[in-house]
């Protein structure tokens, strides 16, 4: 079967990156069955040929009116599709969608009529915010990292102190995730309530933790989004390893952490 990627090398590079990350999510054990989803704002690599492709399925509602999304295009994982399959066949386990003029509906334009992820409300409302705020961030990624989800099962970790604990596990955590972890109380997967609460937290954090479910990250590239989650989950893993060895880890001192903040000139809000 011919795929749109054959004649669009820039698009192919982006989708290959999605496929590579999907493979890592599976290898990490973060993507059981159809767990997790990803969207990539590909508007910059869409040429006139792609722009004018006919819809291959009837337009469907987004569930909200997202006015900044007019004329944008996204690669989206298909609902019910597996990351391990997407890693090998990204265009059979995901699709390219075009946001319609009304900013309230979308159409699938390639390659197959694979229905987008059930978390589309969270993904698209965040892309709407990113575009509206002039951000260079183009991807959003949701996955189920074991250690971070495990922490979220204790209400004692559902606060800002958890970020400080994670930062103190190894210097790189603070250096590479300086905005830390935002927390979203449990909400129904795929719901608008989850989307709204995620948007609130994503403005000021590197990664958002969905209580008893997973995480959500936005970044410039899919690889960067994966790295953000990996860095914070590694810190959670170290914390849990120490706990399972029978002690509470000391954590780096406040002085050592301040030194890192100064040396790395770390941002205190999301860079656009
Ligand atoms: P989808 O298969 O619809 O993307 O759902 C996976 C998931 O993780 C929902 O939170
Ligand atoms: Zn999920």
Strand and helix map with partners:
Elements: H1 9-28, E1 37-41, H2 48-51, E2 60-61, E3 73-77, H3 83-88, E4 94-99, E5 105-110, H4 120-132, E6 139-143, H5 146-151, H6 161-167, H7 171-176, E7 181-184, H8 192-202, E8 207-210, E9 214-219, H9 222-244, H10 254-264
Parallel strand pairs: 7-8
Antiparallel strand pairs: 1-3, 1-6, 2-5, 3-4, 4-5, 6-9, 8-9
The structure holds 1,3-dihydroxyacetonephosphate (13P) and zinc ion.
Report on the structure:
The protein is an alpha+beta fold and 272 residues long. Helix content is 39%, strand content 16%. It has a nine-stranded mixed beta sheet with strand order 2-5-4-3-1-6-9-8-7, with helices on both faces. Helix 4 runs parallel beside helix 8. The longest helix has 23 residues. The structure holds 1,3-dihydroxyacetonephosphate and zinc ion. The site of 1,3-dihydroxyacetonephosphate (13P) has 12 residues, from loops.
Identify the strand order in the major beta sheet: 2-5-4-3-1-6-9-8-7
**Rg, alpha carbons:** 19 Å
> Count of DSSP helices?
10
How would you state the average pLDDT, rounded? 96
Q: Structural class, judged by helices and strands? A: alpha+beta
The arrangement of helices and strands along the chain is HEHEEHEEHEHHHEHEEHH
Q: Given the C-alpha coordinates, what overall shape results?
A: elongated
User: Which residue ranges are poorly predicted, with pLDDT under 50 across at least 5 consecutive positions?
Assistant: none
Small molecules in complex: 1,3-dihydroxyacetonephosphate, zinc ion
Terminus-to-terminus distance: 39 Å
Question: Percent range for helical residues?
Answer: 25-40%
Annotation, overall tally of beta strands:
9
Amount of beta strand = 15-25%
Biggest sheet character: 9 strands, mixed
């Amino acid at each position: 079967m011919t795929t749109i990627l054959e004649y669009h090398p820039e698009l192919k590079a982006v989708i290959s990156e999605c496929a590579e990350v999907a493979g890592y999510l599976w290898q990490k054990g973060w993507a059981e069955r159809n767990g997790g989803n990803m969207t990539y704002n590909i508007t910059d690599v869409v040429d006139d040929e792609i722009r004018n492709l006919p819809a291959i399925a009837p337009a469907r509602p987004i569930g909200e009116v997202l006015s900044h999304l007019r004329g944008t295009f996204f690669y989206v994982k298909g609902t019910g599709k597996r990351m391990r399959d997407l890693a090998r066949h990204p265009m059979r386990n995901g699709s390219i969608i075009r946001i319609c003029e009304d900013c309230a509906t979308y159409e699938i334009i390639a390659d197959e009529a694979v229905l987008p992820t059930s978390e589309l409300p969270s993904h698209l409302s965040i892309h709407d915010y990113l575009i509206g705020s002039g951000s260079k961030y183009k991807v959003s990624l949701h996955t189920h990292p074991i250690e971070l989800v495990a922490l979220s099962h204790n209400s004692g970790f559902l606060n800002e102190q958890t970020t400080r604990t994670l930062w103190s596990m190894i210097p790189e955590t603070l250096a590479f995730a300086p905005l830390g972890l935002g927390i979203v109380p449990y909400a129904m997967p795929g719901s608008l309530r989850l989307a709204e609460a995620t948007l609130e937290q994503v403005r000021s954090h590197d990664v958002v933790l969905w209580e008893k479910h997973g995480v959500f990250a936005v970044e410039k590239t899919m690889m960067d989004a994966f790295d953000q989650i990996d860095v914070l989950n590694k810190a959670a893993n170290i914390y849990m390893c120490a706990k399972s060895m029978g002690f509470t880890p000391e954590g780096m001192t406040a002085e050592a952490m301040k030194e890192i903040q100064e040396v790395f000139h770390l941002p205190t809000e999301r860079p656009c």
